[in-house]
Every structure is written in structure tokens, then in C-alpha cells.
């Protein structure tokens, strides 16, 4: 069984995910860290991404990344087992119903359980927490808004009110509970 973490930028997918993978004996794979290795195969042009970065257009950048992230998911999820994937937030930027259905079909076919990581149960509180951290952007807003309209997973992990160590322990417990089902 695989576990896949999704969530807005800065919620803790990488920090908590790496620690939880180690404690649950899962391999760790970050789509962000593998971008250059995988995206190029599908026609990704780093120069185009750089142009969006220079224009400070994060929404366009994430929209540009999304088809390559989905193609990478379609390649890596079936090829790996016992892995915790950090899928980032890019896959849910302005998702179409077909993209959501494809991701749900892919995760079901590969025995992958998705966990959405959020600071809080409340949308306004999520915005406030992420603003305070200096990482609330239009991308974060789009991610939160679109997730709410699609409900891509039944597993949701909230980080608010807990220390990093507590969140690692709680995430490990959630993963073990999911694996036990």
C-alpha cells in the first residue's frame, strides 16, 4: 500500500511526510524533488517555468506544472509500493472533473490512499494561519477552494494546535490506521 500526501504549500507535507515515512518503514518520494527527472519526459520546458517565475505568476506556473505532475503520478504510482508520496498542491489547481476522476481511479488502482493535509477544519482559519506564515497565495486559495468542491479523499489531517513532534506522531498513527484497514 502507498500513501499520498496532498495539501496547500507550507502545510507540512514534506517535513512531516519524510519523518512519517521513516517511522512507518515507507519509502519517501517527492514529486517536487523529482520534477526535473520526470517532467522532461513529458515535454516540460524549464525555460517556460522560469518565465512564469520571472513574471511572479505562480498560478500560471502551477497550471503549467499540473499536466506533468499528473503524467508523473501515472508513471510512478503503479511502479512503486510501500511508498509515501508527497504530491504537493499542484495537482489540484483548477481541477476538471475528469482530472479528479483520473486521480481517484489511479489511486484506487495502485492501492494508494490520499491524505489531505490542512492547518484547520475551517477555511477562514486556514487562510489566517497560512497568511501568518507568509505562505498564503492565490495558489493556496485555489487549492482550498477546489478541494472543497471535489472532495478527492476521505482522509484529512489537520495540523493546527499541535507541535511538529505531535503532528509526526499523529500522522504516523493515521498512516498505520489506514494500513490496518
UniProtKB/TrEMBL annotation:
Q: Which Pfam families match?
A: AAA (PF00004)
Q: For this protein, what is any one GO molecular function term?
A: ATP hydrolysis activity
Q: What superkingdom heads the lineage?
A: Bacteria
Q: Which InterPro entries match?
A: ATPase_AAA_core, P-loop_NTPase
- Transmembrane spans: none
Q: Which Gene3D superfamilies match?
A: P-loop containing nucleotide triphosphate hydrolases
Q: Which residues form the ATPase AAA-type core domain?
A: 4-34
Q: Indicate what this protein is called per its UniProt record.
A: ATPase AAA-type core domain-containing protein
* Native organism: Agrilactobacillus composti DSM 18527 = JCM 14202
Amino acid at each position: 500500500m502507498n500513501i499520498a500526501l496532498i495539501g496547500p504549500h507550507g502545510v507540512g507535507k514534506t517535513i512531516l511526510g519524510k519523518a512519517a515515512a521513516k517511522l512507518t518503514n515507507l519509502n519517501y518520494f517527492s514529486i517536487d524533488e523529482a520534477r526535473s527527472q520526470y517532467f522532461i519526459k513529458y515535454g516540460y520546458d524549464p525555460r517556460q517555468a522560469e518565465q512564469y517565475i520571472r513574471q511572479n505568476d505562480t498560478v500560471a506556473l502551477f497550471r503549467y506544472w499540473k499536466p506533468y505532475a499528473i503524467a508523473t503520478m501515472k508513471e510512478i504510482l503503479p511502479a512503486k509500493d510501500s511508498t509515501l508520496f508527497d504530491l504537493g498542491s499542484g495537482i489540484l489547481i483548477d481541477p476538471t472533473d475528469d482530472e479528479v476522476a483520473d486521480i481517484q481511479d489511479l489511486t484506487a488502482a495502485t492501492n494508494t490512499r490520499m491524505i489531505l493535509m490542512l492547518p484547520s477544519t475551517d477555511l477562514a482559519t486556514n487562510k489566517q494561519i497560512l497568511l501568518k506564515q507568509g505562505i498564503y497565495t492565490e495558489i493556496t486559495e485555489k487549492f482550498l477552494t477546489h478541494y472543497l468542491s471535489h472532495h478527492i479523499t476521505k482522509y484529512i489531517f489537520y495540523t493546527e494546535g499541535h507541535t511538529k513532534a505531535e503532528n509526526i506522531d499523529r500522522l504516523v498513527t493515521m498512516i498505520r490506521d489506514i494500513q490496518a484497514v
